[in-house]
Amino acid sequence: MAQAFDSTRLLPTLRQWAHELGFNELGVARPALAEDERHLLRWLQDGRHGTMTWMARHGVKRARPERLVPGTVRILSVRMDYRPPDLEADDALLADNRRAFIARYALGRDYHKLMRKRLQALANRIDTAVGGFGYRVFVDSAPVLEKALARNAGLGWIGKNTLVLNRHAGSYFFLGEIFTDLPLPESEPVDDLCGSCRACIDVCPTGAITGPQQLDARRCISYLTIEHEGSIPEDLRPAIGNRVFGCDDCQAVCPWNRYAQPTDEADFHPRHGLEDASLVALFRWDEATFLKRTEGSAIRRLGHERWLRNLAVALGNGPADADAIEALRERLEHPSAMVREHVTWALERLSRPGAAAAAHP
After folding, report:
1. 252, 93 contact by CB (below 8 A)
2. 164 is in an annotated binding site
3. Domain assignment of residue 2, given as a range
4. DSSP character string of 302-325
5. What is the pLDDT of residues 315-354, one digit of tens each?
6. Distance, CA of 223 to chain centre
7. What is the pTM of this model?
8. Domain shared by 265 and 290, yes or no
9. Quick check: is 140 catalytic?
10. 244 marked as binding residue
11. C-alpha dist (Å) from residue 187 to 8, 156, 216
C-alpha cells in the first residue's frame, strides 16, 4: 500500500499524464459490478457466448475485480481513439463486393502491446509519485468486464449495441485498465443518451442484437469472422457480405459517432493497403505472405486457414467474376477441410443464374 497522499490533488495529475501518454480520457471506477454479474451469468446460461468457452470458464471472476487482483479498491479506466482519418465511408466499401471490409480497429497495428506499454508507463509515474502502490495493468488480457468498468468510470454509457458510447467521441476507441489499491475519488457516471434510437438493432445484418444491450454472439459477424474457430453456419454466410474481419455496422450507424475523433496515433493508421484491398488479391496470399503482411496486426491471430475461410465466404457473396472463380478453384484441393467446404459453397453460389449481376446476396 502506498504512503499517505492527497487523492483529490493526484487525480488531475493522473489525467494530465494519461493525455501525455496518448490516452484520450481517464476515469476512476469502484469495483461494484453486481448487476453486470447477473447479466453476464444470464448471457452464459443462454449460451450466447457460442464457442468462446473461456467466457464460461472464468465465470464470476470477470465481474469481481478484487478476486482477480486482491486488494483492488479502484480501477483506472482509460480510452484511446483508434479510427484512422480520411477513411472511405463504410457503406461505400460494403457496397463494393469486390473489395474486403476489415473492421476499422484492425487496419493498423495491434493495440494490445501499445496500450499496455503506455499503461505501464502511467503506473510507473504513479508509483514514483505516491511512493509505491499495488496495481496490475490490463488491456483485454484477463477476465475483466472492461465496458462496465468504463461506464462506472464515467467514460460513457453502454449503448444498445453493447459498446461504450461517449457523447464527445462516439465508440471508436480502445479500453484499458489499471487495478489499484489507491482509494482515489470515483468519477461520476454519465447518463444513457440512446433514448428511443434503435438504429444499431435495425442495421445488424444477422440480427445479432436481439434487444437493447442484448447480443447473441453466435450470430454476430465479428464473432463469426474472428472468434469462431469452426465452420461458419451456412444460413448466416450470405449476410456477411464482404466483411472478412469483424463488422462495424452498429458503430457506423450510431448517431453519436458523428462526434468520433480521428486518431493521431500513427500505429493505428492503415497498413499494407488493407483499407482498400480486393478480395481476390487477399485470397491469393499464401501463408508466408499472410504472416508477413499481418505481422503486428490483430488479424494475424486468425491464422491463414480462417483468413481463407472468411474470404471464401466474401467471394461467394460477390459477383461471378472470372478472377474470383479462378482464385476459388485454386483452393479446391486445400489441405484444410474447412477451407475446402467454404470454397465449394462459394463456387456453388457463383454458379447460380444471375450471380454475375448480383451486387449483394
Report:
1. no
2. yes
3. 1-272
4. GHHHHHHHHHHHHHHTS---HHHH
5. 999 999 999 999 999 999 999 999 999 999 999 999 988 7
6. 10
7. 0.94
8. no
9. yes
10. no
11. 11, 11, 31
Q: DSSP assignment, residue 227?
A: I
Q: Are residues 146 and 209 in the same domain?
A: yes
250 is in an annotated binding site: yes
Say if residue 191 carries a ligand binding annotation: no
The list of the chain residues with pLDDT below 70 reads 1-5, 355-361
User: 315: domain CATH number?
Assistant: 1.25.10
Give the chain's domain count: 2
Residue 203 · residue 239 · CB < 8 Å: no
194 is in an annotated binding site: yes
- Assess whether 211 and 313 both reside in one domain: no
Give the β-pairing of 157-158 and 135-138: unpaired
pLDDT reported for residue 55: 87
323 and 228, same domain (yes or no): no
pLDDT in tens, 177-233: 999 999 999 999 999 999 999 999 999 999 999 999 999 999 999 999 999 999 999
Euclidean distance between CA atoms 232 and 306, whole angstroms: 10
Based on the domain organization, do 196 and 334 belong to the same domain?
no
Residues 127, 140, 192, 267: which is the catalytic one? 140
